[in-house]
Amino acid sequence: MANVEKISVSMTPQHAEILRDAVESGAYASSSEVIREAIRDWSAKWVQRRDDIAKLRALWTEGKPVAIQPKWISTRRSMKRVQNWPR
Q1: Domain coordinates of the chain in residue numbers?
Q2: Which of 5, 37, 7 is CA-nearest to residue 19?
Q3: What is the mean pLDDT of residues 2-6?
């Protein structure tokens, strides 16, 4: 990994313990490897969320009822809004 940037990350003692446990178990070679995997997972979620937000903004601008329900929106809250949607 020739092209890397070192940064410092603060975390709770509980998160640090989980990170150390993952490395000590042999599942990961280093704490950096754990963090890289976590960032990859988060990145995929962030891209999906960003796309969902863009779609919702476009629908809002067009003035159309929302027909999509992004995974990250609470189902209960969404259903309540849909039930109360003006028809």
Answers
A1: 13-83
A2: 37
A3: 86
